[in-house]
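hey so i finally got around to running the thing on that chain from the lab meeting. sorry it took forever, my laptop kept dying and i had to restart like 3 times. anyway pasting the input first so we r on the same page abt which one it is
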Amino acid sequence: MVLENKVLSVSDIQSRIFTFRGVQVMLDRDLAIQYKVATKALNQAVKRNIRRFPERFMFQLTKEEFENWKSQIVTSNIYSKDEIEALKMGARRCPFVFTEQGVAQLSAVLHSDVAADASVMIMDAFVAMRRFITANAGLFQRVDLLEQRQLSTEKKLDVVLDKLEDLSPAVTSEQLFATGCVWDAYTFVCDLIRSAEKRLVLIDNFVDERVLTMLDKRNVGVEATVHTRYTEQVMLDFEKHNKQYAPIEYVQMPHAVHDRYLIVDDTVWLLGASVKDMGRGLCTVIKVGFRPEMVIGLAMK
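ok and heres what got predicted. didnt touch it at all, straight out
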C-alpha cells in the first residue's frame, strides 16, 4: 500500500530510523513511502539484485523483534492513522530493514529520479542522526546510568518487600476479638477468604450485602456458597449481586443453626458471631478439626 500524498521531511525520516541489532535502519514500508512505490515492488527490486544487499545492508526482522517494535510504536506519534492501518494490513510478514548502505543501493536498483532524490534525503537523515547521537553521547550514558541505578534500587526494594512479607504474621488458627475490634475482625475474615484456592462455604443464619462484598475478595475461580435462612431481602441481595459479579450460590437452610462456620477449601473455621457482626462484641474465631462435609450435612438436616 502506497500513501500517495505522504511526503516525509528530514525530521520525519529521522523519527523513523530505528535501532535493531545495534545498527540504525529504516523499514521497507517507510522507504517505499518516500520512494513512492509499493512495498512489494521495492522488495521485488531488491530480490532481483540481491547480491547488492548483503546482510550488513539489509535483513529481515524476526517475529520477536517485530512484535516488540509494534508494541512500542502504538503509543508513539510517529505514524498517522492511515499509516497505522497500512502497517496492520501488511503485518502478516516481518518487514525487511535497510541500513544507510542499503539505502544507497536502493537508488541504484529502483532506477528513477524520485528514488535518487529520496535516497539523498534519507542518507542526510542518517548523517544527522549520527551527529545527534555523537553530540549527546554523554547525556545518553548518564541516562543509561540512571536507569541502571533505578533497576538496582527496584531490585533492592523487591528484596525488602519480600522480606517483610516473609515476616508478616500468617493467619493464626485461633483469634479473640474484643468488643469494638470491628476492623481487626473484618480484615481477619477477609484474609481467610483470600486464602481459599478452591471453595468457600459460609454457614450463617444472618447474611446481608456486606457479607457478599467480603466474599467478592476471593481469588478468581474460587467457588462461593452461602447456607442461610430465607428472607425476601436476602434473595434480592443475591439476585442483584449475581447479575453484576461472580455468582455466589445461595442455599436455604431448613432450620436455624446456632453456630456459624466458614469452610475454606478443606478447613473448617468456627465463627463466634455472624460475619456481618464480627467485632461488635467479644467473639472468637477458631479452626476446628471437623470434616467440611460433616458440617454441611448436619446443617442441612
